[in-house]
């Protein structure tokens, strides 16, 4: 498991896993989804999505995000729909 923190949203911490061992099934530890990008009302933990926290703090240029899922460099862009 990796732990991610955000320079612009310092109170947000995410755990990232690519494989779960026994005992860590979704039934025991509900997942928050992809980068916790859903709505707080449907969050497994009732947490605010990272994206909305960044918007509320004025940390994004625009209140938008986009994904580029084309290999070999898939990425997430927060605050813009344009990729550098």
Automatic annotation (TrEMBL):
Q: What is this protein called?
A: Peptidase A1 domain-containing protein
Where does the source fall among the domains of life? Eukaryota
Tell me which Pfam families the record gives.
Asp
The residue ranges of the Peptidase A1 domain are 11-69
Q: Which InterPro entries match?
A: PEPTIDASE_A1, Peptidase_aspartic_dom_sf
């Amino acid at each position: 498991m990796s732990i991610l923190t955000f320079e612009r949203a310092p109170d947000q911490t995410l755990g990232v896993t690519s494989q779960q061992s026994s005992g860590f099934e979704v039934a025991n530890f509900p997942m928050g989804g992809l980068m916790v990008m859903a709505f707080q009302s449907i969050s497994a933990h009732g947490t605010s999505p990272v994206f909305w926290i960044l918007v509320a703090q004025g940390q994004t240029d625009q209140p938008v995000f986009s994904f580029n899922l084309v290999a070999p460099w898939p990425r997430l862009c927060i605050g813009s729909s344009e990729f550098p």
